[in-house]
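Q: Got a minute? One more chain.
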Amino acid sequence: MKELVEVMAKGLVSKPDEVVVTEIEKGGETVLKLHVAEEDMGKVIGHAGRIAKAIRVIVKAVAIKEDKQVSVDIE
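A: Always. Here it is, folded:
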């Protein structure tokens, strides 16, 4: 799951070397924290949060298929 978020984010940003995804387990749920360069935040969030929502929807769909609970935080 971590790799999926990393690949999607690197495809969106202008500084792919600065994309970092951290995986944290919290009470049966996996939290993926996405860090990108400051100037790339707008590209990852998108207009009115559409890109961020799309990333979360894709990750949630894969998580459901694998019977897991996963959330994505963009920092």
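A: The chain has a mean pLDDT of 95.
Q: Perfect, thanks.
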